[in-house]
Please model this.
Amino acid sequence: MAESSLSQIEAPVQRQTMDADIACVGFGPATGGFLTTLSRGLLNPDGTPRVESSVLPGAPPQVICYERADDVGFGVSGVVTKARGIRQSFPDLDPKQIPMCTPVKHEKVLYLLDPIGASRRSITLKVTDGVIGAFRKLLPVEHDALELPYLPPYLRKDGGLLLSIGQFSQWVGSQLMNGGTVQIWPGTPVASPLIEEDRVFGVRLVDQGTDKHGRASDGFMPGMDVHAALTVLGDGPIGPVSRQIDEHFGMPAGHRRRDWAVGMKFVVNLPENCPLETGTVLHTLGYPEPGIFGFLYVHPDRIASLGVFVPSWFESPVRTAYRYLQHWMLHPYLWRYLNGGTLRSWGAKTLGESGRRGEPHLVGNGYARIGEGSGSTNVLTGSGVDEAWTTGVQLGEAVLELLQQKKPFTKENLMATYVQRRRASWVETEGRVAERSRDGFHWGIVTGLIGMAVAGATKGALAAPVQPREVRDHTPRLENYYRNRIPLAEIEKIRRDCAARGISIHSALMDRVGWPAIPYDGKLLVSHQDALLIGGKVQAPAGYADHVVFLYPNLCERCGTKICVEICSGQAITLGTNGVPIFDREKCIHCGACTWNCIMPHPERLERSIIEFRAAPGGLHSAEN
Ligand SMILES: Cc1cc2nc3c(=O)[nH]c(=O)nc-3n(C[C@H](O)[C@H](O)[C@H](O)COP(=O)(O)OP(=O)(O)OC[C@H]3O[C@@H](n4cnc5c(N)ncnc54)[C@H](O)[C@@H]3O)c2cc1C
Ligand code: SF4
Ligand code: SF4
Model:
């Protein structure tokens, strides 16, 4: 039986209500772009309202933004961007104004060979590695890495910025709050949209003072209902409020969100002797597994952001971003730069990689969608920040136009202003080029790389002629994945041992197939638990319901893969004695990866899994990601 409905459990209480003109969900780059644009058009130069609030006559429109994370900049990630939209909003931007910000200087793409022999490589890759090895003296190979001689134009970030989106968000947020025309409320998760037939009329905030099941407990305070003429959804790729809108209104015909990745990153102090220059951008592929991509970006003051992406099409049931990230750092090409460094911050977050094909209905009566959750991220260029910002700017301009013309926020009016601007912009043109560029990865890394190159070269006219598959179709059973490497009886024994200890199975299996133990140094190579303490400072305020819910425990009992336990970025999901996972909200970093990695389809809504990811405060306490 299912445990509960989509949003928080209904309490039979009278909720307080508040009226606003515009309510925003989430403060990432998309809402940053929206509020920056909107706030500049609300007042005349003499400080009088240019347009009037409908709920507070005589005042400018009342605009409130609710952010789930405990502070502005804690819930976001991202680094390198062409910053076309951002620069248009801030033409005089001096990178020195924003901590960790610097212009992009050198870009490299590296193919990492496997110096250990533990990764799982196809015949084609083994042959490629053999050829590179044989000609290593003639090729630009150093420290087991081949520097690709050519960086396609669509991947280049010439003239762009390298920044910490956390720091950038704080910089934008403080300007907005100082301006006084909009309010931003961090630590205030939105539970659900308020929907009446075909209209969204505001949002409901999360209940406080509940037990873990959402039942009223000490100090119960039901979440307020905020009524607004326009609700702006900028809650990112895995936002629970946007997902409820999709449940209600459906997706446009043929649109589907199938592609995801979990990005896990470290922010580190590089060792003093590290020769990497500020502004360096390194992208890697090939190792620790061929399907895992890596990045290393150098900020000012010898600080670097580095990490890996584990995509949904990664054909492995032992997904673990954390251990793979450590093996990646230990690759000889990278370790010579990192050895002696220290961990400053750590985090993980979902990246929505369906791009335009995951685009929902962008507007409806009383609501508009911006940013990654609206399908803006470009999957060919690997760029989401500037696209998200720009869609926010487009909505900001559209809303100002409608306010000035005293027109209501109907679907029709939002289509004619916001959607029309978006369709005419580079976000749309480039999004269309990217639309099918990643399909090839659904059938292997080599097909994927060729597909991307072809899509890039033909501006999207051609792509790998394959059909994308669902995440669950990419996830083999453990027995099949390790068929030729570990005898079945031994897999079963490892599984029983790990279950008895309540731990995930990936480390034992990786050890068994030759991945060496991580030589912990207590500074940069630290245990996953230490990363939570040192690098993430993860917190969860008391008095809130669990936000990760296993809807059908009886189905979990039968699940042999338990991929939710393997993928969990914070080790917040562990094995329960009866096979039903246990969730510990004090370790959750709100990455959202569990919900799209679960391989069990929801019995009534096949496109969803049986893990529900809801809104809650807490998570990482770092604005460096
Ligand atoms: C590890 C990693 C590295 C990346 N690197 C790059 C890069 O180098 N360059 C690039 O261009 N892109 C990069 N991206 C992608 C980029 O981060 C996103 O495309 C971009 O942040 C999307 O912006 P957004 O505003 O749409 O959503 P988000 O940045 O996801 O912001 C959404 C906000 O909404 C909040 N929220 C969610 N639900 C609720 C709720 N119910 N109530 C209140 N608040 C809520 C969240 O806490 C968050 O702060 C990276 C992503 C990851 C994960
Ligand atoms: S939540 Fe999904 S992956 Fe986890 S045990 Fe249940 S069915 Fe398996
Ligand atoms: S439980 Fe939390 S940390 Fe773990 S995968 Fe789910 S959202 Fe991420």
